[in-house]
Design goal:
The chain is α/β, with parallel strands linked by helices. Helices cover about 25% and strands about 30% of the residues. It is built from five helices and nine strands. The strands form two sheets. Strands 4-3-2-5-6-7 form a six-stranded mixed sheet, with helices on both faces. Helix 2 links the parallel strand 2 and strand 3. Helix 1 crosses helix 2. It is globular and about 50 Å long. It binds inosinic acid (IMP) and magnesium ion. Magnesium ion (MG) binds next to loops.
Length: about 200
């Protein structure tokens, strides 16, 4: 859905900006992987909206698979201790892999995931992340395809959630008052969805 102005939320990436940038990312990936058939390894659940829009704009042959990982610590914090909850069904040995992520924050989650994937002997691994909160990075990571660099703030929308809410907003919003959201996870539901 497309919200209007909602008190406490600040638009940082509009639906139009997302569309333009995702098309650019898809064009770059399509050029780099021309003649190949990469596997897009998508991290559930936040990256699914991005995956759909990205792959529909790619002009190459590709495969899609999913992985679900949980970082211990909920809400904002990430500990780097990660458990695989759902693994790939594709054997990525000898394959070109493109990891599709919604947001890289400290980088701990992706760092763990990249180690797991490399241990399976893929031919290559690259990362396509829609959002990069680079000021919060703890571990240095290669991000070959980056949508937007964003400041250190908590964001929701376009797949990104807080306590499973707000994924189905078509733009990305900064939560101005995070304490309000922590106290009441559905604080913006009425403003966005009218109930
Ligand atoms: P990292 O391990 O600190 O890089 O955390 C990455 C994960 O934390 C992302 O895949 C998201 O699931 C979540 N995350 C980090 N920042 C945000 C945010 O601003 N909004 C929603 N989820 C976030
Ligand atoms: Mg994620």
């Amino acid at each position: 859905m497309t919200p209007g102005e909602v008190e406490g939320l600040r638009l940082i990436v509009s639906a139009e900006e997302l569309e333009v940038r995702i098309t650019e990312l898809a064009n770059a990936i399509s050029a780099d992987y021309a003649g190949k058939r990469p596997v897009f390894v998508t991290i559930l659940k936040g990256a699914t909206q991005f995956l759909a829009d990205l792959t529909m704009r790619c002009s190459i042959d590709l495969e899609i698979d999913f992985m679900s990982i949980s970082s211990f610590g909920s809400g904002r914090s990430s500990s780097g201790v990660v458990r695989i909850e759902k693994d790939l069904t594709t054997d990525i040995t000898g394959r070109d892999v493109v990891v599709v992520e919604d947001i890289v924050d400290t980088g701990l989650t992706l760092n763990y995931l990249l180690r797991v994937l490399h241990a399976r002997d893929p031919l290559s691994v690259s990362v396509c992340a829609l959002l990069d909160k680079d000021v919060r990075r703890i571990v240095d990571l290669p991000i070959e395809y980056r949508g937007f660099s964003i400041p250190d703030s908590f964001v929701i929308g376009y797949g990104l959630d807080f306590e499973q809410l707000y994924r189905n907003i078509d733009a990305i919003y900064e939560v101005v008052d995070v304490d309000r959201l922590i106290a009441s996870p559905d604080a913006f539901v009425a403003g966005l969805f009218g109930h």
